[in-house]
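Protocol step 4 of 6: structure prediction from sequence.
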Amino acid sequence: MNRRTLNHAALLLAIAALLAPLTASAQDQMMGQEKMMDDSRPIVAIIRADWCSACQKLEPTMAKLQEQYKDRLTFVVLDVSNDEKTAEAAATARKLGISKFFAAHKKKTSTVAIFDAKHKKLFQTDHNADGDAYVRAFDDAIAKAAAMKQS
């Protein structure tokens, strides 16, 4: 192997290591779908696929933010990598009350949206790996959720 091939292989391994926590967390959340439906926290829905280069750029940002906001937001990964995962994602979206959003955007990988407890879309972007934009959107959604609880 030449040096470039080795560097490429090392980069792929690093990306896989970064994706593991996000994927594991998504699986944990899928197991607690009932809890998510009763949760008053905003939902961050991430449409992604293994083959999507924009998703690969986004995932390190989302993994970091997911750790930072895990107690204030509910994160759900809607994986559309293949037909089986797309069907699972559709079922999850249906249980969360965001099936119309998923149906309209399932072919737009690297899409992130935030929904309030009543399933109203508060924020949406795609192909955006800007962590600061997400921090602003997440903080805004959390503030709106707190205001809804008080009213």
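Step 5 (inspection) to follow. The CA atoms of residues 12 and 33 lie 31 Å apart.
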